[in-house]
Structures are given as C-alpha cells and as structure tokens.
Amino acid sequence: MLEASINDIQLKQLNRDLELTGRELLKIATRAFKSSAKNFTKNAIKTIKKNYGIADKKLRQRIRQYVIDDLKIKIFAGFYRTGLTNWQARKTKRGVTYGRPRRLRKGAFIARMPEGGKIAVKRTGQYHTPSKGRYANKVYQRNTAKHKKGEPYKVEILEKQVTENNEIENVVMPILQNETENFYKIFKKSFESEVNKYLRNQFKKGLK
After folding, report:
1. What is the residue extent of each domain of the chain?
2. What pLDDT does 188 receive?
3. pLDDT, tens digit (0-9, with 9 covering 90-100), for 34-46
4. Which of 49, 82, 98, 183 has the smallest count of CB within 10 Å of its CB?
5. C-alpha of 78 from chain center
6. Strand order in the sheet with 103-106
7. Half-sphere exposure of residue 177, counting CA atoms within 13 Å on the CB side?
C-alpha cells in the first residue's frame, strides 16, 4: 500500500513568505490537498493505459485510494482478477498478442465462457484419436462438432499468468510510485492557486 501525504515541514516551507495563521494555512492546505488527491488515481490510470494498454475499467476496480485525514491518502492496488484479456488481447495466426509493446503468447487463443466473458487459453498435448464412432482410429480434427465424443484436449489457462508472474504489477507499481513521489509538486501548484483565491477574497472583503 502506497501513501501520499503533506507534512508540517512542507507546510512551513510553503508558508514562509505568506505569513498565514495556522488556521488559514490548514484551511488552504486542506482544499489544495483534496483537489490534488481527487485526480491522483485518475492520472495514474490514464498513464498506465496510455503506456501499456491495460483496460481502464479494470484498473479503476483494482486501484483504490482511501482518505486517512485532511492531508493523507493511501493507495491500494491489487490485480488478482486482472487477466491477459484486459491487456487489449488480440487473436493472431501465431497466438494471442497483448499489451504495449505487443507481447505474444504463442499457440494461444481467446475462448468465450458459457457464463460470459473471455479468457486466454492454450491447447496442449497431441490430437486425440477416438477409438469408437465415426472417427475411430482417425486423426482427431480440432474445431469439429464431434469433438464432444472424444476426450478433450488438455487446456492451459493463460489468463491469470500475467498476474501470477507479476507482469501487471511490474508495470503498474512503478507508475503509482512515481505519482506518489510527484504528489508534492501537484499539491504545491494547487496550493498556490488556493492561496491566490484566498487573497483575492480577502482583498474584496477589505474594499467593502
């Protein structure tokens, strides 16, 4: 779990030339933090999708942020149900390609599940030769309606391998870490904007 926060030292540095009271400083900082935190996950997901092609809908389900207090959030990222088909998977003659840059799972194909959804799988082993029926002692042909009468091919599930091999985590976590490290820069920009709004309002009140 990652954390993005603003500490007292950073606030004092921002207030060095402003001379705001403690109450004013906290009020402005809280507004700036909420504004910065609001787009944290959104910006991270946008970067991940652009660089690696992982579906943003799935990322929104798997990357969550939680407000701890006025100046701290924590980010949780878990990809246990994010599969290969969430990486813009495409069936090709050689297998299934996915991600950016494109990667290949040779010999794989995308199967539709009876309950809905898709998964990436790969047949393994030799063709089955039935011992009975119309196709007895003949080379068993794939993609035939008679396939149901024989023993099925062994199927290797590739869908979860990108999670089990930490492929997704290895590309997503560095981006989230980078966003966390750059959070102060984003907050500082938002803080300066909130200060300008506050000073303008104070100036208008002084004219009345």
Report:
1. 2-79+165-207, 84-159
2. 94
3. 999 988 988 999 9
4. 49
5. 9
6. 90-91, 95-98, 103-106
7. 6
